[in-house]
Fold this protein.
Amino acid sequence: MNTSVHSRPINDRIDWLMELSLSHSASFCSPESHLARQRYLAEHNTLIIAMKCMDGRIHLPYVTRTPLGIIHPFRNLGGIFDLGWPYLGDMLADTVQEAVSAGRRVLIIITYHFSKGVKERGCAGFNCDQEAARAHAFSIRYQLEALFGSGHQTVYPLVCGFETDEDALILHGRDNQALDLATVAPAEATEIGSRIGSLYPDMPVPVQRDLLPLVQGNIRHITDIRKSDRELDIEHREWVICIGRGFDFLHVPNIALIIGPYSPDLSHPIRQAAGIIKANMDSGRIPDDGFLLLSSAPYQEPGTQKARATLKSAFLSGFAANVIEQDFPELAERMVTRSAILNWPERRLEVQSIKP
Protein backbone atom coordinates (compact mmCIF):
# COMPACT_ATOMS: atom_id res chain seq x y z
CA MET A 1 0.00 0.00 0.00
CA ASN A 2 1.12 3.51 -0.76
CA THR A 3 1.08 5.14 2.67
CA SER A 4 0.32 8.51 1.05
CA VAL A 5 -3.33 7.43 0.79
CA HIS A 6 -3.70 8.51 4.42
CA SER A 7 -3.03 12.13 3.49
CA ARG A 8 -5.32 12.38 0.45
CA PRO A 9 -8.67 14.23 0.51
CA ILE A 10 -11.50 12.11 1.89
CA ASN A 11 -13.21 11.59 -1.49
CA ASP A 12 -9.95 10.33 -3.00
CA ARG A 13 -9.47 7.98 -0.07
CA ILE A 14 -12.98 6.58 -0.50
CA ASP A 15 -12.41 6.05 -4.24
CA TRP A 16 -9.18 4.20 -3.41
CA LEU A 17 -11.07 2.00 -0.95
CA MET A 18 -13.77 1.11 -3.48
CA GLU A 19 -11.09 0.20 -6.04
CA LEU A 20 -9.50 -2.05 -3.42
CA SER A 21 -12.81 -3.90 -2.96
CA LEU A 22 -13.20 -4.33 -6.72
CA SER A 23 -9.70 -5.74 -7.15
CA HIS A 24 -10.29 -8.16 -4.26
CA SER A 25 -13.48 -9.46 -5.91
CA ALA A 26 -11.77 -9.78 -9.30
CA SER A 27 -8.93 -11.76 -7.75
CA PHE A 28 -11.34 -13.99 -5.80
CA CYS A 29 -13.45 -14.72 -8.90
CA SER A 30 -10.59 -15.36 -11.32
CA PRO A 31 -10.48 -18.84 -12.88
CA GLU A 32 -7.10 -19.55 -11.30
CA SER A 33 -8.32 -18.63 -7.80
CA HIS A 34 -11.54 -20.60 -8.22
CA LEU A 35 -9.70 -23.73 -9.35
CA ALA A 36 -7.12 -23.34 -6.57
CA ARG A 37 -9.91 -23.28 -3.97
CA GLN A 38 -11.60 -26.33 -5.46
CA ARG A 39 -8.34 -28.28 -5.57
CA TYR A 40 -7.42 -27.25 -2.03
CA LEU A 41 -10.80 -28.27 -0.58
CA ALA A 42 -10.61 -31.63 -2.34
CA GLU A 43 -7.30 -32.29 -0.59
CA HIS A 44 -8.08 -30.65 2.78
CA ASN A 45 -11.59 -31.24 4.07
CA THR A 46 -11.37 -29.52 7.48
CA LEU A 47 -13.35 -26.29 7.79
CA ILE A 48 -11.00 -23.62 9.13
CA ILE A 49 -12.47 -20.71 11.08
CA ALA A 50 -10.37 -17.78 12.31
CA MET A 51 -11.43 -15.51 15.16
CA LYS A 52 -9.28 -12.42 14.90
CA CYS A 53 -8.82 -8.71 15.38
CA MET A 54 -9.97 -6.14 12.85
CA ASP A 55 -6.31 -5.15 12.27
CA GLY A 56 -5.51 -5.40 8.56
CA ARG A 57 -2.13 -6.96 9.33
CA ILE A 58 -3.85 -10.12 10.57
CA HIS A 59 -4.23 -11.65 7.11
CA LEU A 60 -4.04 -15.41 7.64
CA PRO A 61 -4.49 -16.48 3.98
CA TYR A 62 -1.58 -14.23 3.00
CA VAL A 63 0.82 -15.29 5.77
CA THR A 64 0.04 -19.01 5.36
CA ARG A 65 -0.02 -19.05 1.53
CA THR A 66 -3.60 -20.36 1.61
CA PRO A 67 -6.03 -19.67 -1.28
CA LEU A 68 -8.58 -16.92 -0.58
CA GLY A 69 -11.93 -18.24 0.64
CA ILE A 70 -10.58 -21.26 2.53
CA ILE A 71 -10.26 -19.63 5.96
CA HIS A 72 -13.59 -18.29 7.26
CA PRO A 73 -13.03 -15.12 9.32
CA PHE A 74 -14.86 -13.75 12.34
CA ARG A 75 -13.40 -10.25 12.85
CA ASN A 76 -14.05 -7.75 15.60
CA LEU A 77 -12.45 -4.74 17.22
CA GLY A 78 -9.56 -6.01 19.35
CA GLY A 79 -10.42 -9.64 18.53
CA ILE A 80 -12.83 -9.40 21.47
CA PHE A 81 -15.57 -12.04 21.44
CA ASP A 82 -17.90 -13.70 23.93
CA LEU A 83 -19.75 -16.84 22.87
CA GLY A 84 -22.54 -15.82 25.22
CA TRP A 85 -23.46 -13.08 22.75
CA PRO A 86 -26.64 -14.49 21.15
CA TYR A 87 -25.89 -13.63 17.52
CA LEU A 88 -22.26 -14.72 17.65
CA GLY A 89 -23.04 -17.98 19.45
CA ASP A 90 -25.84 -18.85 17.04
CA MET A 91 -23.82 -17.96 13.96
CA LEU A 92 -20.79 -19.96 15.07
CA ALA A 93 -22.92 -22.96 16.07
CA ASP A 94 -24.74 -22.86 12.70
CA THR A 95 -21.43 -22.67 10.81
CA VAL A 96 -20.06 -25.67 12.70
CA GLN A 97 -23.29 -27.65 12.31
CA GLU A 98 -23.33 -27.09 8.56
CA ALA A 99 -19.77 -28.39 8.29
CA VAL A 100 -20.43 -31.41 10.51
CA SER A 101 -23.56 -32.29 8.51
CA ALA A 102 -21.32 -32.42 5.43
CA GLY A 103 -18.94 -34.81 7.21
CA ARG A 104 -16.25 -32.23 7.91
CA ARG A 105 -14.26 -31.54 11.06
CA VAL A 106 -13.69 -27.96 12.21
CA LEU A 107 -10.49 -26.18 13.26
CA ILE A 108 -11.11 -22.85 15.02
CA ILE A 109 -8.00 -20.66 15.18
CA ILE A 110 -8.26 -18.04 17.94
CA THR A 111 -5.70 -15.31 17.35
CA TYR A 112 -4.11 -12.54 19.35
CA HIS A 113 -1.38 -10.29 18.01
CA PHE A 114 1.63 -8.27 19.14
CA SER A 115 4.89 -6.76 17.90
CA LYS A 116 8.20 -8.04 19.22
CA GLY A 117 9.98 -4.87 18.09
CA VAL A 118 7.84 -2.05 19.48
CA LYS A 119 5.05 -2.54 22.00
CA GLU A 120 3.01 0.29 20.43
CA ARG A 121 2.67 -1.76 17.24
CA GLY A 122 0.58 -4.27 19.19
CA CYS A 123 -3.19 -4.64 19.50
CA ALA A 124 -4.90 -1.31 20.16
CA GLY A 125 -7.97 -3.17 21.43
CA PHE A 126 -5.92 -4.31 24.45
CA ASN A 127 -3.83 -1.14 24.77
CA CYS A 128 -0.92 -3.11 23.27
CA ASP A 129 -0.92 -5.46 26.29
CA GLN A 130 0.25 -8.81 24.87
CA GLU A 131 -0.55 -10.79 28.01
CA ALA A 132 -4.10 -9.44 28.19
CA ALA A 133 -4.70 -10.24 24.52
CA ARG A 134 -3.35 -13.78 24.95
CA ALA A 135 -5.42 -14.36 28.10
CA HIS A 136 -8.56 -13.32 26.23
CA ALA A 137 -7.75 -15.77 23.41
CA PHE A 138 -7.51 -18.61 25.95
CA SER A 139 -10.81 -17.55 27.51
CA ILE A 140 -12.44 -17.96 24.08
CA ARG A 141 -10.91 -21.44 23.81
CA TYR A 142 -12.50 -22.41 27.13
CA GLN A 143 -15.87 -21.14 25.88
CA LEU A 144 -15.52 -23.13 22.67
CA GLU A 145 -14.82 -26.27 24.70
CA ALA A 146 -17.93 -25.59 26.78
CA LEU A 147 -19.95 -25.23 23.57
CA PHE A 148 -18.52 -28.05 21.45
CA GLY A 149 -16.87 -30.35 24.00
CA SER A 150 -13.33 -30.87 25.26
CA GLY A 151 -12.72 -34.17 23.44
CA HIS A 152 -11.74 -32.19 20.33
CA GLN A 153 -12.59 -34.99 17.91
CA THR A 154 -14.96 -32.85 15.85
CA VAL A 155 -14.19 -29.22 16.76
CA TYR A 156 -10.63 -28.28 17.67
CA PRO A 157 -9.97 -24.82 19.20
CA LEU A 158 -6.39 -23.64 18.72
CA VAL A 159 -4.90 -20.49 20.26
CA CYS A 160 -2.46 -18.83 17.90
CA GLY A 161 -0.26 -15.79 18.48
CA PHE A 162 0.52 -13.53 15.53
CA GLU A 163 3.78 -11.56 15.68
CA THR A 164 3.21 -8.75 13.19
CA ASP A 165 6.80 -7.63 12.54
CA GLU A 166 7.59 -10.90 10.72
CA ASP A 167 4.02 -12.24 10.28
CA ALA A 168 5.07 -15.22 12.41
CA LEU A 169 2.55 -17.57 14.02
CA ILE A 170 2.99 -18.98 17.53
CA LEU A 171 1.04 -22.20 18.06
CA HIS A 172 -0.03 -22.77 21.66
CA GLY A 173 -0.40 -26.41 22.64
CA ARG A 174 -1.01 -28.42 25.77
CA ASP A 175 0.84 -27.98 29.08
CA ASN A 176 1.97 -24.43 28.24
CA GLN A 177 3.94 -25.64 25.24
CA ALA A 178 4.29 -23.33 22.24
CA LEU A 179 5.87 -23.52 18.82
CA ASP A 180 7.11 -20.19 17.45
CA LEU A 181 7.34 -20.64 13.69
CA ALA A 182 9.85 -17.79 13.52
CA THR A 183 12.35 -20.18 15.11
CA VAL A 184 11.86 -22.95 12.54
CA ALA A 185 14.42 -23.08 9.74
CA PRO A 186 13.02 -23.49 6.20
CA ALA A 187 14.85 -26.82 5.87
CA GLU A 188 12.86 -28.12 8.84
CA ALA A 189 9.46 -27.31 7.30
CA THR A 190 9.06 -30.72 5.67
CA GLU A 191 9.52 -32.44 9.04
CA ILE A 192 7.29 -30.12 11.05
CA GLY A 193 4.38 -32.57 11.06
CA SER A 194 5.86 -34.62 13.92
CA ARG A 195 6.24 -31.48 16.06
CA ILE A 196 2.58 -30.59 15.45
CA GLY A 197 1.63 -34.10 16.53
CA SER A 198 3.61 -33.69 19.77
CA LEU A 199 2.12 -30.25 20.40
CA TYR A 200 -1.46 -31.46 19.85
CA PRO A 201 -1.63 -35.16 20.75
CA ASP A 202 -5.44 -34.99 20.96
CA MET A 203 -5.84 -33.42 17.51
CA PRO A 204 -7.41 -35.83 14.99
CA VAL A 205 -4.96 -36.88 12.30
CA PRO A 206 -7.07 -35.39 9.47
CA VAL A 207 -7.03 -32.01 11.22
CA GLN A 208 -3.26 -32.24 11.74
CA ARG A 209 -2.93 -32.99 8.03
CA ASP A 210 -4.98 -29.90 7.14
CA LEU A 211 -3.16 -27.64 9.62
CA LEU A 212 0.21 -28.64 8.17
CA PRO A 213 -0.02 -26.61 4.91
CA LEU A 214 -0.77 -23.44 6.92
CA VAL A 215 2.26 -24.04 9.13
CA GLN A 216 4.57 -24.80 6.22
CA GLY A 217 3.23 -21.81 4.29
CA ASN A 218 3.93 -19.51 7.23
CA ILE A 219 7.51 -20.77 7.54
CA ARG A 220 8.12 -19.97 3.85
CA HIS A 221 6.42 -16.58 4.27
CA ILE A 222 8.61 -15.62 7.24
CA THR A 223 11.70 -16.47 5.19
CA ASP A 224 10.56 -14.17 2.38
CA ILE A 225 9.67 -11.36 4.82
CA ARG A 226 13.19 -11.47 6.26
CA LYS A 227 14.61 -11.04 2.76
CA SER A 228 12.40 -8.04 2.03
CA ASP A 229 12.70 -4.40 2.99
CA ARG A 230 9.21 -4.10 4.44
CA GLU A 231 8.51 -0.81 6.18
CA LEU A 232 6.63 -1.34 9.42
CA ASP A 233 3.60 0.86 10.05
CA ILE A 234 4.07 2.05 13.61
CA GLU A 235 1.31 4.62 14.00
CA HIS A 236 -2.39 3.92 13.93
CA ARG A 237 -3.82 6.14 11.18
CA GLU A 238 -7.30 4.69 10.67
CA TRP A 239 -9.87 6.81 8.84
CA VAL A 240 -12.66 4.25 8.27
CA ILE A 241 -15.15 2.77 10.73
CA CYS A 242 -16.64 -0.47 9.37
CA ILE A 243 -19.64 -2.10 10.97
CA GLY A 244 -21.11 -5.44 9.95
CA ARG A 245 -19.57 -8.26 7.93
CA GLY A 246 -17.94 -8.57 4.54
CA PHE A 247 -14.72 -6.60 4.92
CA ASP A 248 -12.20 -9.27 3.85
CA PHE A 249 -10.86 -6.90 1.21
CA LEU A 250 -9.62 -4.58 3.98
CA HIS A 251 -6.45 -6.49 4.79
CA VAL A 252 -4.42 -3.27 4.78
CA PRO A 253 -2.73 -1.92 7.93
CA ASN A 254 -3.96 1.21 9.68
CA ILE A 255 -6.93 1.93 7.44
CA ALA A 256 -10.08 0.71 9.18
CA LEU A 257 -11.59 -0.11 12.55
CA ILE A 258 -13.90 -3.07 11.97
CA ILE A 259 -16.78 -3.76 14.34
CA GLY A 260 -18.49 -7.12 13.84
CA PRO A 261 -22.25 -7.18 14.47
CA TYR A 262 -21.81 -9.63 17.36
CA SER A 263 -21.93 -7.77 20.67
CA PRO A 264 -25.37 -7.01 22.16
CA ASP A 265 -24.00 -3.54 23.00
CA LEU A 266 -22.67 -2.22 19.69
CA SER A 267 -22.65 1.36 20.97
CA HIS A 268 -19.57 0.70 23.12
CA PRO A 269 -17.17 -0.37 20.31
CA ILE A 270 -18.63 2.34 18.05
CA ARG A 271 -17.74 4.98 20.63
CA GLN A 272 -14.27 3.44 20.98
CA ALA A 273 -13.73 3.57 17.24
CA ALA A 274 -15.01 7.15 16.95
CA GLY A 275 -12.65 8.20 19.74
CA ILE A 276 -9.70 6.69 17.85
CA ILE A 277 -10.70 8.49 14.63
CA LYS A 278 -11.00 11.79 16.53
CA ALA A 279 -7.58 11.29 18.13
CA ASN A 280 -6.07 10.54 14.72
CA MET A 281 -7.48 13.79 13.36
CA ASP A 282 -6.51 15.86 16.40
CA SER A 283 -2.91 14.64 16.25
CA GLY A 284 -2.62 15.28 12.52
CA ARG A 285 -2.06 11.60 11.66
CA ILE A 286 -4.94 11.86 9.16
CA PRO A 287 -6.60 14.90 7.51
CA ASP A 288 -9.53 16.40 9.39
CA ASP A 289 -11.66 16.81 6.24
CA GLY A 290 -13.64 13.64 6.87
CA PHE A 291 -13.83 9.96 7.70
CA LEU A 292 -15.87 7.08 6.30
CA LEU A 293 -18.55 5.09 8.09
CA LEU A 294 -19.07 1.92 6.03
CA SER A 295 -21.70 -0.70 6.84
CA SER A 296 -22.01 -4.07 5.11
CA ALA A 297 -24.08 -7.25 5.31
CA PRO A 298 -23.46 -10.35 3.16
CA TYR A 299 -26.01 -12.33 1.17
CA GLN A 300 -25.79 -15.67 -0.64
CA GLU A 301 -28.73 -15.46 -3.04
CA PRO A 302 -30.91 -12.77 -4.66
CA GLY A 303 -34.46 -12.22 -3.46
CA THR A 304 -35.27 -12.33 0.24
CA GLN A 305 -31.65 -12.82 1.36
CA LYS A 306 -30.47 -9.79 -0.59
CA ALA A 307 -33.36 -7.68 0.66
CA ARG A 308 -32.66 -8.72 4.24
CA ALA A 309 -28.99 -7.81 3.85
CA THR A 310 -29.98 -4.39 2.52
CA LEU A 311 -32.19 -3.73 5.53
CA LYS A 312 -29.55 -5.01 7.95
CA SER A 313 -26.80 -2.83 6.48
CA ALA A 314 -29.05 0.24 6.53
CA PHE A 315 -29.92 -0.39 10.17
CA LEU A 316 -26.26 -0.79 11.17
CA SER A 317 -25.34 2.40 9.32
CA GLY A 318 -28.12 4.39 10.95
CA PHE A 319 -27.41 2.98 14.41
CA ALA A 320 -23.69 3.76 14.23
CA ALA A 321 -24.31 7.23 12.82
CA ASN A 322 -26.71 8.04 15.67
CA VAL A 323 -24.19 6.95 18.31
CA ILE A 324 -21.48 9.10 16.75
CA GLU A 325 -23.82 12.09 16.36
CA GLN A 326 -24.84 11.90 20.02
CA ASP A 327 -21.37 11.36 21.52
CA PHE A 328 -19.12 13.13 18.99
CA PRO A 329 -21.27 15.84 17.35
CA GLU A 330 -18.33 17.78 15.90
CA LEU A 331 -16.81 14.61 14.47
CA ALA A 332 -20.19 13.63 13.00
CA GLU A 333 -20.15 16.76 10.86
CA ARG A 334 -17.17 15.26 9.02
CA MET A 335 -18.72 11.80 8.61
CA VAL A 336 -19.36 10.30 5.17
CA THR A 337 -21.57 7.20 5.21
CA ARG A 338 -21.84 4.30 2.79
CA SER A 339 -24.32 1.47 3.22
CA ALA A 340 -23.35 -1.64 1.26
CA ILE A 341 -24.17 -5.30 0.83
CA LEU A 342 -21.75 -8.05 -0.12
CA ASN A 343 -22.42 -10.66 -2.78
CA TRP A 344 -20.78 -13.49 -0.82
CA PRO A 345 -20.19 -15.99 -3.67
CA GLU A 346 -18.26 -13.30 -5.59
CA ARG A 347 -17.07 -11.26 -2.57
CA ARG A 348 -18.42 -8.23 -4.44
CA LEU A 349 -19.25 -5.10 -2.45
CA GLU A 350 -22.37 -3.29 -3.70
CA VAL A 351 -22.90 0.23 -2.35
CA GLN A 352 -26.60 0.80 -1.69
CA SER A 353 -26.68 4.38 -0.54
CA ILE A 354 -24.45 7.43 -0.33
CA LYS A 355 -24.88 10.12 2.29
CA PRO A 356 -22.45 13.03 2.54
User: Anything to note?
Assistant: The CA atoms of residues 263 and 356 lie 28 Å apart. The chain has two domains: 44-227, 240-355.
